């Protein structure tokens, strides 16, 4: 994933990189503090709900970054649980990925 870092003050802008991907907003210590969403926002309903609750664009970007982090962690946990339970054959997945790489 391509991510570029900007200061939090830029979070009110709708900025994307040349690939149209949202750019990450970070604080002075380099911690991710929000995603500058493009018009292809991943959570449009949640964004609208938060706007309706009178949160600022900066606050919404921070909230959505937390939601995205939670979603990523949940997906990792789900994959690991699937491997542990035997529902996902990790070796078959590895073999398939390497086969595609060789093609």
Provide a count of the helices.
3
Q: Rg from C-alpha positions?
A: 17 Å
Low-confidence stretches: 1-23
Helix content estimate: 40-55%
What can you see in these coordinates?
The chain has helices spanning about 45-50, 55-85, 90-100; strands at about 5, 25, 30-35. The chain is mainly alpha-helical. It has one domain (about 5-100). The longest helix is centred in the last third of the chain and has 29 residues, at about 55-85. It is elongated, with a radius of gyration of 17 Å.
In short:
With 103 residues, this protein is mainly alpha-helical. It has a 3-stranded mixed beta sheet with strand order 1-2-3.
Which descriptors would you attach to this protein?
50% helix; 103 residues; single chain; mainly alpha; elongated; 3-stranded mixed sheet
Topology:
Blueprint: E1 5-6, E2 23-26, E3 32-36, H1 44-52, H2 57-85, H3 90-102
């Amino acid at each position: 994933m391509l991510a570029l870092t900007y200061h939090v003050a830029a979070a009110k802008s709708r900025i994307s990189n040349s690939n149209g991907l949202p750019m990450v907003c970070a604080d002075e210590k380099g911690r991710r503090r929000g995603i500058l969403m493009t018009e292809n926002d991943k959570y449009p309903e949640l964004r609208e709900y938060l706007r309706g609750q009178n949160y600022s664009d900066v606050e919404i970007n921070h909230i959505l970054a937390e939601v995205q982090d939670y979603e990523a962690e949940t997906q990792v946990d789900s994959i690991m649980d699937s491997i542990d339970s035997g529902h996902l054959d990790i070796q078959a997945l590895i073999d398939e990925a390497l086969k595609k790489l060789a093609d």
